[in-house]
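User: structure tokens for Shikimate dehydrogenase (NADP(+)), please.
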Amino acid sequence: MNAPLNFAVMGNPIQHSYSPLLHSLFAKQAGLAINYEKMLVPLDGFEAAVQTFFSQGGKGLNITIPFKLRAYEQAKANLSRRAQSAGSVNTLWMEDGQLHGCNTDGIGMVNDIRRQGIALEDKKILLLGAGGAARGVVLPLLETGCRQLLIVNRTASKATALATQCLAELPQYTSVLSAGGFEHIQGQWDIVINATSSSLQQHALPLPAGLFAHNSLAYDMVYTPENDTPFLQQARQDGATMASDGLGMLVYQGSESFFIWNHVRINPVPVLETLRQQLLTG
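Assistant: Done. Predicted tokens:
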């Protein structure tokens, strides 16, 4: 019997994390023996904690708030394109004695949208917010072959700066990617993604009426037990055909980390169903 592989998630706070449950379910499906723990890391001890974890034979780390930017700095010599574009890292591993970093949030969201039977190719996508959550999904969204991606933010200059920075790295998307303030939103959109913290703060966004096209999706990166957030309520009232919270994004980003570490693809759907049930029953 092989010794279990050691994984962990590091953050501060960390008690809320579902990562140990997710990865135990992934491992069970893949037939792998793993240990996966939550590690509360002191704010001044992150870099040392990472070094200690891998020096003791750890195989992979997930990184959450507030350490994603510091994980990016630590793995700066070996970053995936996703991590470079996101400017932050949520997945760390060692390869040939070198620390590597990736950001799986964006591909996790894209795969969760596809799970719901929605193609992103040739779609008009509106991205609300220009902070770290938005930044992490821009490249994966552009790579879907969408027709248009508009980033809007309450402070328009922040959205414009994000788009400008992305286009400096990805000039091939100049005709697809644009940015502005909420007042720049015009017409109807196939997919509207909330990457702001509005739902956490329980307030609505200043969105124009008639925003949603036929067969449209409203997607909130925040999740709740009932798949219902202030943004999703607002979207349903305005005619969104489908509404989804970000629980699937959490599961799919985790499955991408699992694949990076173990080179095994699992089916995230039953894991998502288990997690949703666990949220509902408390």
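User: Anything notable?

Assistant: The chain is about 40% helix and 20% strand.
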